[in-house]
Specification:
By secondary structure, the chain is an alpha/beta fold. 24% of the residues lie in helices and 29% in strands. A hairpin with a 2-residue loop joins strand 1 (2-4) and strand 2 (7-8).
Length: 269
């Protein structure tokens, strides 16, 4: 989905699969903001068409990427293509005046994208969620790996816990997970904080360990959440996880264990 100045760009599809974009001349202004939500590869073609139309109007245009596609392929792995690099080159070729990426999966995204800036709404949501849950000094903020800890290291919260995990680079499966830093008092509430949830295996593993250590309630605060979480075990009855707090950057399905938080883009751009 693409929004131009907060209004949806209407697209249709021809029988042969080609994309038709309805002209949006009435939405164009001197300074434009395009909000891009990736759901499939065809959305990249829609972004191309929208930007070319704006180029014809000779107007300024900034881009907000709600979730950067291919951001997990952020390095060259033997046998696989470095696809984040190629998608970044494609976006660079569109020559936006400024690119904002909401919660990039790694710093590599910002390095590859021209005129880009990262936005981290989870840091703004965290105090709200802590207040909602009635956090005290005995409760804990939990980072599921070193990457998450580094991403939010400037958050300024004491009593954080950090897991260390070993993942097979070919299969993506987690082979080992241990609590590397911090402690969990008996009865503590825990909020696991990260950027992206897919099926949720990492968070389920962390939640099970936290529960064994004595945590009373465990929550997940994650900016991006894929639909795959609905078919995984993280939301099943009997899961140690109480609730997921997330945005609609990738999904908006209703579930009793999911609470959506709105990203007010005007607060960042």
């Amino acid at each position: 989905m693409i929004l131009l100045n907060k209004q949806p760009v209407i697209t249709e599809q021809f029988p042969n699969g080609e994309t038709k974009v309805k002209d949006f001349d009435h939405l164009i202004s001197a300074d434009n903001l395009v909000q891009f939500t990736y759901q499939e590869d065809g959305d990249l073609i829609k972004l191309l068409f929208v930007k070319k139309r704006l180029d014809e109007a000779e107007v300024r245009c900034r881009l907000v990427i709600n979730y950067m596609p291919y951001s997990r392929m952020d390095r060259k792995i033997e046998g696989d293509l470095f696809t984040l690099n190629y998608v970044s080159q494609f976006i660079n070729s569109l020559a936006f005046d400024q690119v904002y990426v909401i919660e990039p999966h790694s710093a590599k995204t910002i390095q590859l994208l021209n005129n880009s800036e990262a936005i981290y709404p989870a840091l703004d949501w965290l105090p709200q969620v802590m207040a909602e849950l009635g956090f005290t000094d005995q409760d804990r903020i939990v980072f599921p790996d070193k990457g998450a800890a580094a991403r939010y290291e400037g958050a300024g919260y004491a009593n954080c816990c950090v897991f260390d995990k070993t993942r097979n680079p070919q299969t993506g499966r987690i082979e080992n997970m241990i609590l590397k830093q911090g402690n969990v008092p008996i009865g503590a509430k825990c909020i696991i904080v990260d950027d992206l949830c897919s099926a949720g295996g990492t968070f389920l593993g962390a939640a099970e360990i936290l529960k064994e250590m004595g945590a009373s309630e465990i929550y997940l605060l994650v900016t991006h959440c894929e639909r795959r979480v609905l078919s995984g075990k993280l939301l099943n009855e009997g899961s140690p996880l109480e609730k997921i707090f997330t945005s609609t950057s990738m999904m908006n399905e209703v579930h009793p264990k999911i609470e959506y938080i709105t990203i007010n883009i005007e607060d960042y751009v």
